[in-house]
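Consider this pair:
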Amino acid sequence: MADPKFFDRAGPFTLAELADVAGAEIRCGDAAASFDDVQPLQSALASHISFLENKLYVSAFEDSSAGACLVDPAYASRAPEGMALLLTEEPYRAYARIAQAFYPKSCFTHAPEPGIHAAAHVDPSATLGAGCRVEPGAVIGAGALVGAQCSIGANTTIGAGVTLGDGCWIGPNVTVQFALIGKACVIHPGARIGQDGFGFAPGAEHLKVPQLGRVIIEDGVDIGANACIDRGTGPDTIIRRGTKIDNMVQVGHNVEIGAGCLMPALSGISGSTKVGNYVMMGGGTGIAGHLTIGDGARIAAHSGVMRDVAPGETVAGAPAVAAKQFWRQIAALKRLAQPKKGT
């Protein structure tokens, strides 16, 4: 159960209400039965609802005491006796909707408690929309435009001229400068947006190239803790709507990232690379500069991408190659490493 010191729980909800929220079908169970929380399969009790997404947890599903479970129809027959089932082909997404219903304030979708703390500094020329919250030590610079119902965390700096759309949640100790940010964006603690890109003209004395672009972030983007997104050299750095960027990610100057991309922790994209829509990367991925990554491409964890990736292609390894080729190479190396008979 979530710690009530940190999370406010809504509910309880009936099975019918949860099915409606999840977009799932009730296979068995009393539609009027009440449930008061979400829980993992291993710790769930009769008043809890859980989910099965990964086949590695089928045994935990079979042994679970959960009163109800979101499950793919393929695994429904493995349910323990008495468990109510909500059938869906996307159990994890259904769980996300139900968890949001139980814990709406944990999803950055609720309006903040409005007010500007006395220890914050808001430049007189800055504009704040209705219902904003500005916490202690925050600084909002000259000419900044902050939309309605935004939350600005403690010791965060919103630089001069920055624009934030309605409903943004900016965590503590964030720096945002030279940036135009859309609606309902989330920027987690310690992120740095809009600092200088790594631009130097090499020589006996490396000359700094002025970074004259901006960072453009569209609606619904989520940026993790301590991520760094450089502003452009002249062209802008652009992140399209709905992209999710994890903790400690580096995005270089002039990079363009398409809509709906997933970029896990410790990944990096070098300058001027263009990433298409709905690209998925594994953790620790590195992408060289001036490349094009096509729509829907998939890049395995810890890959080093040094060439263009075609739309829909899956690559792995360093340097990255087609995933099937990579696994053939691994198998060949394994065979070579096996000791010969008689040795």
The chain has two domains: 13-107, 174-343.
